[in-house]
Amino acid sequence: MLRSLSANRRLPGPPYVIGSESVDYVVSFARGIQARVVRLEVPPEPDRRGVLRLLGQALGFAEGFGTNWDAWYDCLGDVIETATGGTVVILERSERLLDSPPALFAQLVYHLQTSQDLVAGSARDRLLIEFAFAGLWGDAQTVPIGHGSPRR
């Protein structure tokens, strides 16, 4: 399995942003490399704490996870030290993030990219964590990807 993960690891970069119609393809690909697939639905009125709670549960963070970015990186460090295998987390209905509190989508893209890169750099071939934003983006809607480092 680890060879499969290593051979299919993508280059450092942001989480995938895909249309809802591509979810089955991503699931099939993840299963093909023997990765665990976690499909989460972004709530109708998302906020940072709620989305982090969902993501933390998906990655097996401790029960008392503080739902802020500092706590996120602390818990991610624990996962990097102990976990093995692959996990692909798909955030479905991600278009809802565009109507959420200012900069939430950009913060998530930034921090999830940083998280993927930390895992890739620290866990080597032992662990793979990937994130994908799946949504009904529409032709007229643009998906803003933040420039620079959003606030924690």
UniProtKB/TrEMBL annotation:
InterPro entries: Barstar, Barstar-like_sf. Belongs to the barstar family. Coiled coil: none annotated. It comes from Virgisporangium aliadipatigenens. Pfam families: Barstar. Residues 37-117 form the Barstar (barnase inhibitor) domain. This is Barstar (barnase inhibitor) domain-containing protein.
